[in-house]
């Protein structure tokens, strides 16, 4: 089962050393094409549903960055394939694609990594500043700028070459 794991760049740096293309996934929230998502997007094809799950993971990555001061201010989504019994539906998830990784999976091959380009860091910082200032209008504008950006795709062998902001 393909899951899209919201992450931060420092998590990726810590877990992936050199050209190693495997990543440990522990219990945490992630996103996948669930029955609920398939029901919501009944007219979409598999690729459209996967993209919706991926975008939800990107949104959650932004929340992770907001909750961890000092991490590089870019969104990161790590795509991995795990056995279906490792994943359960997240009953408290904000999205129909929300799932929980139920246990440690120590050595998962990376399928792909998606990261904001370094210039997105200013927009992510604007989101953080708007949250700190409790400015809803500025927050909405900054979130829109961030979510208008596409994350860049990296092959697992390129993780060490991802540019930093």
TrEMBL record:
Pfam (any one): DUF6912
Q: What is this protein called?
A: Uncharacterized protein
Its taxonomic placement starts with: Bacteria, Bacillati, Actinomycetota, Actinomycetes, Micrococcales
């Amino acid at each position: 089962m393909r899951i899209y794991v919201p992450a931060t760049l420092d998590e990726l740096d810590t877990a992936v050393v050199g050209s190693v293309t495997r990543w440990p996934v522990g219990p945490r929230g992630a996103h996948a094409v669930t029955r609920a998502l398939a029901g919501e997007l009944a007219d979409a094809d598999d690729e459209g549903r996967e993209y919706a799950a991926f975008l939800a993971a990107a949104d959650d990555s932004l929340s992770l960055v907001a909750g961890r001061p000092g991490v590089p201010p870019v969104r990161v989504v790590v795509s991995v394939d795990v056995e279906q019994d490792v994943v359960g539906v997240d009953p408290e998830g904000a999205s129909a694609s929300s799932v929980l990784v139920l246990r440690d999976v120590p050595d998962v091959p990376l399928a792909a990594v998606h990261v904001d380009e370094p210039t997105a860091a200013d927009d992510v910082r604007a989101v953080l500043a708007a949250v700190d200032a409790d400015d809803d209008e500025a927050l909405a504008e900054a979130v829109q700028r961030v979510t208008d950006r596409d994350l860049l795709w990296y092959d697992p062998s390129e993780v060490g070459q991802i540019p930093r902001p």
